[in-house]
Amino acid sequence: MINNYFNSGTDMEIDSCDSPDLSEIKKDLDEIKKGINDVNKTILQKNLNENIIHYGIKCSNCLQLNFKGIRYKCFTCPDYNVCDKCEKMLSFFHDKNHFFLRIHDTFLYNCLSNKQ
Ligand SMILES: [Zn+2]
Ligand SMILES: [Zn+2]
């Protein structure tokens, strides 16, 4: 689209600001930007879900230390965390009335909760 605009010849007024083709180009750019955003979001999501390690946190069910993935912290019990895998079976071994916080990043969570 952008190339067509500049190469397509003599009957187009390139210096006109109201040219309808400019809005077409803008639309194309928006599409490209949107695409880049989507890619960024995907990468971010991947990082959140797979690469962040919860240092110093132990899953209270499978006892795995420094696990990856999402950390689930019980809102009612003072020191109760479970990993992603164990969360799926949580209702079998933990009080169903307890709320759990979903924590992607323990470091970030600590920063935020210390400020409050
Ligand atoms: Zn676990
Ligand atoms: Zn609990």
Describe the structure.
This protein has a domain at 71-114. It has a three-stranded antiparallel β-sheet. The model has no long low-confidence stretch (mean pLDDT 82). It is elongated, with a radius of gyration of 25 Å. The chain has 116 residues and is mostly helical. The chain contains five helices and three strands, in the order H-H-E-E-H-H-E-H. The protein has helices at residues 2-7, 20-51, 84-87, 90-93, 106-115; strands spanning 71-74, 81-82, 100-103. One zinc ion binds next to helix 3. It holds the Pfam family ZZ.
Outline:
With 116 residues, this protein is mainly alpha-helical. Helix content is 48%, strand content 9%.
Provide keyphrases for this structure.
116 residues, mainly alpha, three-stranded antiparallel β-sheet, 5 helices, 3 strands, elongated, binds zinc ion
* Total beta strands: 3
Q: Biggest β-sheet, characterized?
A: 3 strands, antiparallel
Provide the spatial order of strands within the biggest beta sheet: 2-1-3
Give the H and E element order. HHEEHHEH
**How many distinct helices?**
5
**Average pLDDT reading:** 82
Measured as a percent range, the helix fraction is 40-55%
Q: Separation of termini?
A: 51 Å
User: Would you identify the regions where 5 or more consecutive residues have pLDDT less than 50?
Assistant: none
- What proportion strand? 5-15%
Per the principal axes of the C-alpha atoms, what is the gross shape?
Answer: elongated
- Rounded Rg: 25 Å
Class per helix and strand makeup: mainly alpha
What ligands can be seen in this structure?
zinc ion
Protein name: ZZ-type domain-containing protein
GO cellular component, one term: aggresome
GO molecular function: K63-linked polyubiquitin modification-dependent protein binding; protein kinase C binding; zinc ion binding
Keywords: Metal-binding, Zinc, Zinc-finger
